[in-house]
């Protein structure tokens, strides 16, 4: 049995947290994936006051909801491997604040973007700075018992589970694991996706469900906004492999329809797509209980 979540950016942006959590359950998901991306708006969440954190927790409690994962893509703007010491210091400060926020909100897993740098040129030095600062991040997380999981990326620096396994040899810790994105993993032609999952299943703590178009000699690929079933990901094959490997962690549907007027319809369509696949391969989704949300319906709509 696996839990199925939805990425926060897939939902309408103008909802309160209570409305958002209630919608997540109404759409049939077990959890919401929380976003701290590189925008000023999302980065400001790292500075939430005690009262703001309490308000957020209360919204979760009132709707009997949870957040399994925090997606910390803000390191794309402030990368661990930057040549600028001020940016590296900012990246480490962000990580400490993200860990503290995760503790306060009851989040157990922080997904790290696997970039040494994104807007700068890559080098042996950017790689080394990344590894040195990754070790510092893991030390921070260990002290608070928070999992860090590196995502396979839309970038050649870390685009496979084998890459993550290698960096685990450089930073050894049970609190550093992998978060494969099936879309990103499938888009790179050098990856044998089934073998990647088989060889590294012991390190997998969560999985992103996203479709992509492949990287080729004439194309950089497409890593966002590819309709499910129209890209290169063999979802049925990947899910069958994960079931055989007894993967019982969470899946998150990753999509970006939050600014679209048809956002909810698009999420429903995606949910139906994966409901059918789960049934085909024999994956049972954790039951979604709306009882507490229904009991508190008057408060939720207040």
TrEMBL record:
The keyword Isomerase applies. One of its GO terms (molecular function) is intramolecular oxidoreductase activity, interconverting aldoses and ketoses. The keyword DNA-binding does not apply. Pfam families: AP_endonuc_2 (PF01261). Keywords: Isomerase. It comes from the Bacteria. One of its GO terms (biological process) is L-ascorbic acid metabolic process. Residues 21-274 form the Xylose isomerase-like TIM barrel domain. InterPro entries: L-Ru-5P_3-Epase (IPR004560), Sugar_Epim/Isomerase (IPR050417), Xyl_isomerase-like_sf (IPR036237), Xyl_isomerase-like_TIM-brl (IPR013022). NCBIfam families: hxl6Piso_put, PRK13209.1, PRK13210.1. PANTHER family: ISOMERASE, L-RIBULOSE-5-PHOSPHATE 3-EPIMERASE SGBU-RELATED. This is L-ribulose-5-phosphate 3-epimerase. It comes from Paucilactobacillus suebicus DSM 5007 = KCTC 3549.
């Amino acid at each position: 049995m696996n839990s199925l979540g939805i990425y926060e950016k897939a939902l309408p942006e103008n909802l309160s947290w209570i409305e958002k959590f209630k919608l997540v359950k109404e759409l049939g998901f077990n959890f919401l994936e929380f976003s701290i991306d590189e925008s000023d708006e999302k980065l400001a969440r790292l500075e939430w006051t005690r009262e703001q954190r309490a308000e957020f927790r209360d919204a979760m409690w009132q709707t009997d909801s949870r957040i399994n994962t925090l997606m910390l893509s803000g390191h794309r703007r402030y990368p661990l491997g930057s040549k600028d010491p001020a940016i590296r210091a900012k990246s480490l400060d962000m990580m400490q604040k993200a860990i503290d926020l995760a503790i306060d909100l009851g989040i157990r897993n922080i997904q790290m973007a696997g970039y040494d740098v994104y807007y700068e040129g890559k080098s042996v030095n950017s790689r080394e700075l990344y590894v040195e600062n990754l070790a510092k991040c893991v030390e921070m997380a260990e002290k608070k018992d928070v999992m860090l999981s590196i995502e396979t990326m839309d970038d050649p620096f870390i685009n496979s589970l084998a890459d993550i396994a290698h960096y685990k040899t450089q930073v050894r810790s049970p609190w550093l694991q992998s978060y494969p994105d099936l879309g990103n993993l499938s888009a790179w032609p050098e990856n044998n996706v089934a073998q990647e999952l088989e060889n590294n299943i012991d390190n997998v703590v969560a999985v992103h469900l996203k479709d992509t178009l492949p990287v080729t000699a004439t194309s950089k690929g497409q890593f966002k906004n590819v309709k499910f079933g129209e890209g290169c990901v063999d979802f049925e094959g990947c899910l069958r492999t994960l079931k055989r490997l007894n993967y019982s962690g969470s899946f998150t549907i990753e999509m970006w329809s939050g600014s679209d007027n048809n956002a909810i319809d698009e999420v429903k369509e995606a949910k139906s797509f994966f409901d059918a696949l789960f049934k085909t391969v024999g994956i049972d989704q954790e039951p979604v209980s709306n009882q507490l949300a229904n009991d508190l319906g008057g408060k939720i709509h207040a």
